[in-house]
Design a protein that fits this description.
This protein is α/β, with parallel strands linked by helices. The chain has four domains: 129 residues, Peroxisomal Thiolase, Chain A, domain 1 (3-Layer(aba) Sandwich), CATH 3.40.47; 80 residues, Alpha-Beta Plaits, CATH 3.30.70.3290; 216 residues, Malonyl-Coenzyme A Acyl Carrier Protein, domain 2; 67 residues, 2-Layer Sandwich (Alpha-Beta Plaits), CATH 3.30.70.250. Helix content is 36%, strand content 18%. Helix 10 packs parallel to helix 11 and helix 11 packs antiparallel against helix 12. The longest helix has 21 residues.
């Protein structure tokens, strides 16, 4: 349906041809995408769209009447074209694990002059599509063109228009049409870039795809009149502009051996910030952050909270600096468990020195409660889990975090955690053990209170430049209150993450960026927002 909606809105005599490399070689797993690329490069070379094998009839799950998309049940000639139209092929790779990639290939110019033709899109592992020359490629890959062989092929340009209402959108289109119509030398690229980068993105939206000024005028005219046109795509996005950006920092669990090592070598911004974190941690630890990152996955250091938490803190803080270097600034910060320490620093509430001290000394203090407790993730609503605990494990097990509508973490006595995992296995609930040997966010950490108040008594929280939403208190917080007592409560009280995500979404935030080495909270964010 996506291919029909995107590429299939064309004349029926110029269909988009659809085929599959999977029909030739079966499940190719990690090689599926490159297999599709190879197949389409060969199709360009040979001038033929190969037949997709083993196709008896089109799938009844697809509304084939919604666009001009046709299956390649037989080979179709695909010659070059002396008129200057280039053949293009798109390769799509979609995997059950989340792979979602689409690349456009464009033929290289022939040595003796320009070659051209229709176009093909090839899908791997399950799709192959063909598209004519007038379709704009969201990604274009083309060979270098020799200076002696000019290729005067018009490049389609997306021209975006938006407004607060449908009537406003039509009015914007008409005003733009009149502007372009009387300016024969107008640059489509300048118009498209100016509208994309210099205008607010409002709720009612349209894109006119035009390869020249005449196409743009015609497309804008159709949009202004409310008439369908193959060059025009319209849509509506509730909430208007992109909304506030939230930087989200997870707790322990997303670490992996080698995380950040490639960025250390390739990103000066990331490397400088990691060096600053290492220097800030130096008074409190006897190891090097960079050395830990290079340790083998089987090294015992990856089992130590007093190592893993400061290292994760350093990676998250450095990733936030990298996001900011690309111009992505948070409008709010949100942390889960120890992730709140990184959030407090990134928003400006804690200096790097105070944040490093907090994460290092607090994680070291956990050694006093190791070996007695455990934690588990249970894919059930918090209310159901609380009822279950009350009936079977009262005083031995507690809700430690509410991560999503059907995602709850429990914490408590090691034996009780074993029992709840066995109970879930017996009832078909796919619970999993969290790889820690202590129980945070429950009464197990109460013996650490006085020690933490003393160790962190001299940190100096400041007013922040970015709002801080507390998953401890469930509200926006005055960051001058992020003192030693707060960081004890952060370790002791349950994490109200799902409530925090919902509150931020209700407040108009629409972009959540998990700033971490592994997407541990993205599923919980999606579950929470999709649920409402």
């Amino acid at each position: 349906q996506a291919l029909l909606a995107t590429y299939g809105q064309r004349a029926g005599d110029r269909p988009l041809w659809l085929g599959s490399v999977k029909s030739n070689i079966g499940h190719a797993q990690a090689a599926a995408g490159v297999g599709g690329v190879i197949k389409m490069v060969m199709a360009l070379r040979e001038g033929v769209l190969p037949r997709t094998l083993h196709v008896d009839e089109p799938s009844p799950q697809v509304d084939w009447s919604a666009g001009a998309v046709r299956l390649l049940t037989e080979a179709v000639p695909w010659p070059g074209d002396a008129a200057g139209r280039l053949r293009r092929a798109g390769v799509s790779s979609f995997g059950v694990s989340g792979t979602n990639a689409h690349v456009i290939l464009e033929e290289a110019p022939a040595a003796g002059g320009c070659v051209a033709g229709g176009g093909v899109l090839e899908g791997a592992p399950g799709l192959a599509i063909s598209v004519a020359e007038s379709v704009a490629a969201p990604v274009a890959v083309s060979a270098p063109v020799a200076e002696s062989v000019p290729v005067p092929v018009p490049v389609p340009v997306p021209v975006p228009v938006s407004a607060r209402s449908e009537a406003g959108l039509r009015a914007q289109a008409e005003a733009l049409r009149q502007y372009v119509a009387v300016r024969p030398d107008v640059s489509l690229a300048d118009v498209g870039a100016g509208l994309a980068c210099g205008r607010a993105v409002l709720e009612h939206r349209a894109v006119v795809l035009a390869a020249d000024r005449e196409e743009l005028v015609q497309g804008l005219g159709a949009l202004a009149a409310g008439e369908p046109d193959r060059r025009v795509t319209t849509g509506h996005a509730p909430g208007g502009d992109r909304g506030g950006v939230v930087f989200v920092f997870p707790g322990q669990g997303g670490q992996w051996a080698g995380m950040g090592v490639r960025l250390l070598a390739s990103s000066p911004v990331f490397a400088r910030r990691m060096q600053a974190c290492e220097e800030a941690l130096a008074p409190w630890v006897d190891w090097s952050v960079v050395d830990i990152l290079r340790r083998d996955a089987g090294d015992a250091v990856w089992e130590r909270a007093d190592v893993v938490q400061p290292v994760l803190f350093s990676v998250m803080v450095s990733l936030a600096a990298l996001w900011r270097s690309y111009g992505i600034e948070p409008d709010a910060v949100l942390g889960h468990s120890q992730g709140e320490i990184a959030a407090a620093h990134v928003c400006g509430a804690l200096s790097l020195k105070d944040a490093a001290k907090t994460v290092a000394l607090r994680s070291r203090a956990l050694a006093a409660v190791r070996g007695r407790g455990g934690m588990a993730s249970v894919p059930l609503p918090a209310q159901e889990v609380e009822q279950l605990i009350g009936e079977r494990w009262a005083g031995r097990l507690w809700v430690a975090a509410v991560n999503g509508p059907r995602s709850t973490a429990v914490s408590g006595d090691a034996e009780a955690v074993d029992e709840v995992l066995a109970y879930c296995a017996g009832t078909g609930v796919r619970a999993r053990r969290i790889p820690v040997d202590y129980a945070s966010h429950c009464p197990h950490v109460q013996p650490l209170r006085e020690e933490l108040l003393e160790l962190l008594g001299d940190i100096s929280p400041q007013p922040s430049g970015v709002p801080f939403f507390s998953t401890v208190e469930g509200t926006w917080l005055d960051t001058t209150t992020l003192d030693a007592a707060y960081w004890y409560r952060n370790l002791h009280q349950p994490v109200r993450f799902s409530d925090a995500v919902q509150a931020l979404a209700d407040d108009g935030h629409r972009v959540f960026v998990e700033v971490s080495p592994h997407p541990t909270l993205v599923p919980a964010i999606e579950d929470t927002t999709e649920d409402t």
